[in-house]
Amino acid sequence: MAKRKKLVDKLKEKYKLVILNDDTFEEKASFNASLWYLIIGAVAFAIILIVLTLITIRFTPLKEYVYGVTDPGSKKIIIEAYSKVDSLQMLADANKVYLENIKNIINGKVPGEKQAKPVGDKTKASDSIKLNQKISKEERELRKLIESEGKFDLNENSAPVKSGIASYSFFSPVHGKVTDEFDPKIQHYGVDVASRQNESIKATLDGTVFFSNFTSETGYVIAIQHSNNLVSVYKHCSVLLKKVGSFVRAGDVIAIVGNSGEFTTGPHLHFELWFNGTAVNPKNYIPF
Q1: What is the pLDDT of residues 25-44, one digit of tens each?
Q2: How far is CA 50 from CA 54, 57, 66, in A?
Q3: Beta bridge partners of 255
Q4: Number of structural domains, the chain?
Q5: For residues 201 and 236, is the Cβ–Cβ distance under 8 A?
Q6: What Pfam families does this protein map onto (predicted)?
Q7: Domain that includes residue 255, residue range
Q8: Could you tell me if residue 256 is inside a domain?
Q9: 240-273: per-residue pLDDT in tens?
Q10: Which residue in 120, 131, 149, 184 is a FRET match for 233, CA 20 to 30 A apart?
Q11: How many helices and strands in the chain, by DSSP H and E?
């Protein structure tokens, strides 16, 4: 009990804090307070400081730097960013495969698989439906009458409908003599057309130029992406007149016949036609 009273008395003892001038020892200011009031003031100051710190963290961007505290809006932005990155990665992988295929086409390289026949390339439609129903005599005579009436009719709708690559009307890229035929067995996926030096090379169809550059083997090369997965390639040019991204119409001059590259023996155009990733014989569709 005596110790407790002694502690209380010490807390009640008053202390004086004096601020003096160091040179003249003149008293500038003084503060009188008991130890009890000093402790209460320090505790109150600490509580106010803690509260202000918590408020600052709660209502300012500083909370993002505190572990375990994340803004919901930031979470949404991060998730969207990861989703876009994933989509861009998939797109980049697809473009890588596409560019690798284009590179193989430019260099005349394709996997050693049997060339598949393009859809719509000289195919004939056939009816596989078998009718086993019994037909009456009147129905048989009516059918003969209708067939005989339209047998000799001449109209544009009676012509067979073309589909696939056969539906295109190709423009001859250059006129000349075919000196080397299409032969996929020896990896010659186009035709060589001998022509005069500096002869104009024209686009065979409307499309967009996706390659226009020089290669050591085939010289100056220009390639055009057409609709329906159709690609035309023009090699051994002397001058390229269109840049990548240029849109061209059928018959537009895109290059000049030349003798560039290692695989050439004279002025000519090496012309390739690709449909759905498969090389096709240009002579089947274009008169040179």
Answers
A1: 788 888 777 777 888 888 99
A2: 6, 11, 15
A3: 201, 240
A4: 2
A5: no
A6: Peptidase_M23
A7: 170-284
A8: yes
A9: 999 999 999 999 999 999 999 888 888 999 999 9
A10: 120
A11: 4, 12
* 146 within a domain of the structure (yes/no): no
Query: Closest Cα to residue 118, out of 5, 286, 282, 235?
Result: 282
52 within a domain of the structure (yes/no): yes
pTM of this structure: 0.50
Amino acid found at 88:
L
pLDDT value at 153 more than 70: no
Say which CATH number the domain at 232 has.
Answer: 2.70.70.10
Q: Are 202 and 253 in contact (CB under 8 A)?
A: yes
Task: Report in angstroms the alpha-carbon separations of 34 from 4, 9, 17, 28, 42.
Answer: 17, 10, 11, 20, 13
| Token pair listed for 9 | 């008395």
Residue position matching structure tokens 């110790």: 3
Per-residue pLDDT at 120 exceeds 70? no
